[in-house]
Amino acid sequence: MPSPAPRPDVVLITKADCHLCAAARAAVARVTEALGIGWSEQSVDSDPALRERFAEEIPVVLVDGIQRDFWTIDEARLERTLRRALDGRS
Prior knowledge:
Blueprint lengths: L9 E5 L4 H17 L4 E4 L4 H7 L5 E4 L2 E5 L4 H12 L4
Parallel strand pairs: 1-2
Antiparallel strand pairs: 1-3, 3-4
């Protein structure tokens, strides 16, 4: 019997005083909660490497280290991406 696919690693990259980040946080929370998976948040404010990489694209959603969305999070697209990851497809 095949083992289940590992849970996708969902990370929201944010920064302080970011109005889009609040909306992105809510969107990621809704999608991941509906699918029963967790997520984490990292701020560019405390990580110079993240700030350099994503300076103009905050907020950013990463799934398994791959940038999947930025600025305004498309919940339907994020859900499709996570469902594929949960099914063992990329």
